[in-house]
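Request: Show me your protein:
***
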Amino acid sequence: MKIEQCIAVITGATGGIGAAVAKKLAEQGAQLLLIARNEDNLKALQAQLNVSSSKQHHYLSVDITTQQGRLDVISRAQT
């Protein structure tokens, strides 16, 4: 499978390793679902990646340490 055909779900997307992985995967052509708790930082990262990428990336602001947060990620990833 080619990365251009993939949707990558990245948790902790707004900081450190998560942000670096998001940027690298976007450069390589993957579509991203960015996950983190801080919506302002997610919006900023999404905007940056959408400008520098041919794909439209999405985000979800949730706390994945909660069951509801994990269910929200699964639900969003399936749409």
